[in-house]
Amino acid sequence: MPQYHHSSPYFDDDDDEELIKKRRKPPPRPSPFLTPSSPHPPRRALLILVILSAVCLIVGIAGIAFAAAAIRRPPRIVTVFRCGRAEDTLRTFRSKSLAATGRPEEGVAARPKVIGVVGVLTGFSSSDRRAALRDTWFPRDPDALSRLDHATGLVFRFVIGQTKDPKKKAVLQKEVETHNDFMFVDADEDNYKLPYKTVAFFKAAFNLFDADFYVKADDDIYLRPDRLATLLAKDRAHRLTYIGCMKKGPVITDRNMKWFESSGHLIGNEYFLHAHGPIYALSADIVAALASARNDSLRMFNNEDVTIGSWMLAMNVNHEDTKALCEPICTSTSIAVWSNPRCLDPCDLKEKLMELQNVSMCSNSSTLPPEDDEDD
C-alpha cells in the first residue's frame, strides 16, 4: 500500500527539533526543603525559618532601642578647648571634671560671652612672677579663678606660647595641673618676639571667648579686677575703642639703648599717640579685624605697644586715655599699679606686690570712689 505523509501548514521540521530539545531537557532539581514525595515543606524547615525570623526581629528591636537611647542621652565626650594650637586650660579642666562625675550634659560653653578677657603675658622662666601675682590679686586655684570670672564678668589667664624644649614643657605642665590658669597661644617662645605673641593672644582669645573687650597685661602689675570690670562695662558710642594710658615720646634709634626701634626712620623723631604696654584694652570689633588678618600683612615694629598703636591709627579707632591704668601708687580710683620705669629683674617683684596688697587703699577700698555731696 502506498504510504502517505501527513503534513500541516502550522508545523515544520524546525518545530519538531525544538520539541525534541524540550523533551530531552533535564527535570529541575528539587529544593533542599522539599522531599521528592511531597511538594510541601517539612516541619524542620518551618522551624528553622521561624527561628531566623525571631532572631532578626530581636536584633531589629535592640537596634531601635539603642538608637533611641543614644538620641536621648548625648555621648560623654571630654571637650578640649582648643583652636589650632591655642587652648584654655581652665575649661579643659572643668570639662574633664564634669565627664569624670558623669555630668557631661551640664557642659562647658564653647565660646562663652564675657565682658572682657585679660591675658597676662608670661614666659617659661617667669614662674616667680606668676607666683607673686597668685599671692596677691590673681586666684591660686581653679575654683577661686572661676568665682572671680563669674563675679567680675572677666576671664583671667596667664598667656604663654609654645616650645620644643621637653624640660620646659615638663616643668610648666606641673604648674598647669596645679592651677589650670593658662591660655596657650600659637607663638614660638624659643624665638621670642613680643609683637607676634601679642597678636597670637588676641587671635586665640577672640576664638575662645565672645568678649566685649580683650585686655593685654604684663606679669608684673598690681590689678584691681573689680575696677577693671567697671571700666570695660561702661556704655560707649564708639564700637572701635582703644583703652589705655596714652603716651608720646622720642623714637629710640640708638641700637645700644633699651626700646631701640629699627624702623624708626618710618616713624620720625616722635612716636604717635599710643598706650603704655603694661596694660591696654581693645574692643571686640578691633580684635575681630586683627584675628582675620595674616601676620605678614601687618607691619611689625620692635616694640609691641608701638606695633599695636600703629595699627590703631590705621583702623581709625577712638583713643580712650585712662590714667587709672598706669598709677605709680594706689589711689581711690587706680585700676592698675606699676612702677615707671618698669620693675625689672633683679628687683623683688613679690615684695613690691605684697606691699601693695597690704595697703588698704589697694586691696580693700571700694570699687567706685565715693561721690561728692551736692551742694544744697
Automatic annotation (TrEMBL):
Membrane topology listed for this record: Single-pass type II membrane protein
Region of interest (Disordered), residue spans: 1-38
UniProt subcellular location: Golgi apparatus membrane
Transmembrane segment boundaries: 45-71
Molecular function terms from GO: galactosyltransferase activity
InterPro entries: Glyco_trans_31
Gene Ontology CC annotation, any one: Golgi membrane
Superkingdom of this protein's organism: Eukaryota
Keywords: Glycoprotein, Glycosyltransferase, Golgi apparatus, Manganese, Membrane, Signal-anchor, Transferase, Transmembrane, Transmembrane helix
Pfam families linked to this entry: Galactosyl_T (PF01762)
Top-level class of the enzyme under EC nomenclature: transferase
Keyword DNA-binding included in the entry's annotation: no
Cofactor: Mn(2+)
Known EC number: 2.4.1.-
Pathway: Protein modification; protein glycosylation
Task of the protein: Beta-1,3-galactosyltransferase that transfers galactose from UDP-galactose to substrates with a terminal glycosyl residue.
Family stated for the protein in its record: Belongs to the glycosyltransferase 31 family.
Protein name: Hexosyltransferase
